[in-house]
TrEMBL record:
Regions that span the bilayer: none
Name of the protein this chain belongs to: Glutamate decarboxylase like 1
Species assigned in the record: Mastacembelus armatus
Any GO CC annotation of this UniProt entry: cytoplasm
Signal peptide region: none
Assembly and oligomerization: Homodimer.
Keyword list, A-Z: Decarboxylase, Lyase, Pyridoxal phosphate
N6-(pyridoxal phosphate)lysine PTM sites in chain numbering: K333
């Protein structure tokens, strides 16, 4: 890179150059002359242009090229040495900063790569990525219409469309926030406020011992919400799930009765549509019957599985979703919007979100503004500054249309079905269970273990296989697939198929590579 002029003119030199100007009227405060900017705008534009070339070449083109590595693995100590993380008093030249940009991309995981199957997000979505760039360039916060007029209206439009797809004919409310964990936290807080409104002002002294009910397969954010909001993790009652990971409705009712018999107050049930590991969908209709019987708030964590609502073929997985009180849905997962893009939806038209979280900050939410202040939505949020994440979904939706997004969901689940069929055909591979969604869970059993009978010895040895194969693929940089244990099962692989850039050949490669990396174990 050619070194360019510094973006920031050195204040001392700037002052000295200006001090020679024979004009005593120049404003000087604390030894700073204030008659001009200290940023060279043209140099700034040139720097951004050069940085964008690096981003396009290394973070977009190479990161999505199947011939490139998924990762350049380095240990933490090696990476510390390579990156020179220390922050110093003096800045570095622009050429060095551009090198830093390149290094940050090089040693990051290429989640847009066709061989990245590690998380519940993957792939490169160009329209959403461009929206992210625009968000950073416009640098605004979504609390009032006056500072974010375009993005305020876009969030309203996206929420309205998502609510329509959920099936709340009477409408609803919602907000985008930083992640599904925060959405689930909103649900807990809103459900508690609905039961005991005095708690907002008087705190926990105003409430009895309250209980949340959730399945053993739920996301850990439910326990975190209970801890953060003062409910307590011991007051999260776990409901057993069946072998496929679905909440058992009769067991839910048993736990409700247990809580009541102890003098506690059950106030909320958390169901899951698309569990993290197995991709299981709780029976929402049956759970809704029980919640209506006991007057409990029903929240569905559909951060992962909410995408099935886009598909006429697969939306049956969420049968009964129109009956729930609230729902979390992350478009940054299967819909592939850029991180983060997470919506919390609530079936309410009484401004419950506003009443629950409003602090009426007078410097933001003045009621005598010259426009309709109902568009100042920030007081619904527990945050002050909030990114306009809905724009990432809006722009993608405008570009693709509902039909193309439906096809993405259908294709992802078709690829997951193909992967499961291939696993069933191959010697040494065994499904944990037939997949219900895009989570495909399986074991690779090396030749040395294939003649062992099912039992403790096999499980103990099989438990060590996935971690070693994962280490080898990471160090080689060939792909990334997650693994974990589940209940009493030994470690198994969980492949998640999302990206439309993934082909049948990529899935075949993944199975071949696992066999290649683990056949000697």
């Amino acid at each position: 890179w050619v070194s360019k002029p510094r973006l920031h003119v050195h204040e001392k030199n700037f002052y000295e150059s200006q001090s020679n100007v024979a004009d005593s009227r120049l404003p000087v405060i604390n030894n700073f002359v204030l008659n001009g900017p200290t940023v060279d705008v043209h140099a700034a534009e040139e720097f951004v242009h050069q940085a964008m070339e690096i981003i396009m070449d290394e973070a977009v083109r190479k990161s999505t090229d199947v011939k490139e590595k998924v990762c350049e693995w380095r240990s933490p100590e090696q990476l510390k040495e390579l990156l020179d993380l220390e922050l110093r008093d003096e800045g570095e030249p622009e050429a060095k900063i551009l090198q830093r940009c390149s290094e940050a991309i090089r040693y990051s995981i290429k989640t847009g790569h066709p061989h990245f199957f590690n998380q519940l997000y993957a792939g490169m979505e160009p329209y959403s990525m461009v929206a992210s760039f625009i968000i950073e360039a416009t640098k605004t916060s979504l609390y009032t219409y006056e500072v974010a007029p375009v993005f305020t209206l876009m969030e309203e439009a996206v929420l309205r469309k998502m609510i329509e797809m959920v099936g709340w004919k009477e409408g609803g409310d919602g907000i985008f926030n930083p992640g599904g964990s925060m959405s689930n936290m909103y649900a807990v807080n809103l459900a508690r406020y609905r039961y005991c409104r005095d708690i907002k002002m008087n705190g926990l002294f105003a409430a009895p011992r309250m209980v949340i009910l959730t399945s053993q397969e739920c996301h850990y954010s439910i326990s975190k919400a209970a801890a953060l909001l003062g409910i307590g993790t011991k007051n999260v009652y776990v409901v057993p799930s069946d072998k496929r990971g679905k909440m058992i409705p009769s067991a839910l009712e048993d736990q409700i009765k247990r809580a009541k018999s102890e003098g506690a107050v059950p106030f909320m049930v958390n169901a899951t549509a698309g569990t993290t590991v197995l991709g299981a969908f709780d029976p929402i209709d049956e759970i809704a019957d029980i919640c209506e019987k006991y007057d409990l708030w029903l929240h569905v964590d559909a951060c992962w599985g909410g995408a099935a609502l886009m598909s006429n073929k697969h939306k049956h997985l969420l049968n009964g979703i129109h009956r729930v009180n609230s729902m979390a849905w992350n478009p940054h997962k299967m819909m592939m919007a850029s991180l983060q893009c997470s919506a919390f939806l609530v079936r309410d038209k009484t401004s419950l979100l506003q009443h629950c979280h409003s602090a009426q900050a007078s410097y933001l939410f003045q009621q005598d503004k010259f426009y309709d202040v109902s568009y100042d939505t920030g007081d619904k949020s527990v945050q002050c500054s909030r990114k306009p994440d809905a724009f990432k979904f809006w722009l993608m939706w405008k570009a693709l249309g509902t039909t193309e997004m439906e096809q993405r969901v259908d294709r992802a689940l078709a690829l997951a079905r193909y992967l499961a069929q291939e696993i069933n055909k191959r010697e040494g591979f065994q499904l944990l269970m037939e997949p219900e969604f895009a989570n495909v869970c399986f074991w690779y059993i090396p030749p040395s273990l294939r003649n062992l009978p099912a039992g403790p010895e096999l499980w103990e040895k099989l438990h060590t296989v996935a971690p070693v194969v994962k280490e080898r693929m990471m160090k080689k940089g060939s792909m990334m697939v997650g693994y974990q244990t589940h209940r009493d099962k030994p470690n198994f692989f969980r492949m998640v198929v999302i990206s439309p850039q993934v082909s049948r050949e990529d899935l075949d490669f993944a199975l071949d590579e696992i066999q290649h990396l683990g056949k000697d174990l």
